[in-house]
């Protein structure tokens, strides 16, 4: 039986992985073939599904076993990425809590919370909404009523 010796989380663009320093620096030292990993990742993520579109930033959780084999799971984009898309921002505030960079209606927050509930490990929508609001505030995004 193979034992998992490492778990790695990476943020990658769905369907667009290419062998390069970002991936190689993490997987190469663990004996994982970078071109084969990229090929497998792109095959799985090259068609859009309910969690993401091709080109979206997705979280890849890679489990590496003691025989250098691996498997991975993919979850949708991080909340911060979705908030930036919704607010049409390149980046959040560099001065959290003091600098306001955007305003979003509560309906947009609820939409993101519903979308991310699967990944959040919460049991109700209110908890998910509170988590998204917390992330938005830390990014300098003000929540307004619709």
Concise overview:
With about 150 residues, the chain is of the alpha+beta class. It is about 40% helix and about 25% strand.
Which outline best applies?
Answer: elongated
Strand order of the largest sheet: 1-2-3
Number of helices: 5
Report the mean per-residue pLDDT as an integer. Answer: 90
The largest sheet is: 3 strands, antiparallel
| Radius of gyration of CA atoms, rounded to a whole number | 17 Å
Distance between the termini: 55 Å
Describe this structure in words.
The protein has 146 residues and is α+β, with helices and mostly antiparallel strands. It is 39% helix and 23% strand. It has helices at residues 21-27, 34-45, 79-87, 106-120, 125-138; strands spanning 4-13, 57-65, 70-75, 102-105, 141-144. The strands form two sheets. The protein has a three-stranded antiparallel β-sheet, with no helix packed on it. Strands 4-5 form a two-stranded parallel ribbon. Strand 2 and strand 3 (70-75) form a beta hairpin. Helix 3 runs antiparallel to helix 4 and helix 4 (106-120) packs across helix 5. It is elongated and about 55 Å long. The mean pLDDT is 90.
Describe the protein's topology.
Layout: E1 4-13, H1 21-27, H2 34-45, E2 57-65, E3 70-75, H3 79-87, E4 102-105, H4 106-120, H5 125-138, E5 141-144
Helix pairs in contact: 3-4, 4-5
List the defining traits of the structure above.
three-stranded antiparallel beta sheet; elongated; 5 strands; alpha+beta; two-stranded parallel sheet; 146 residues
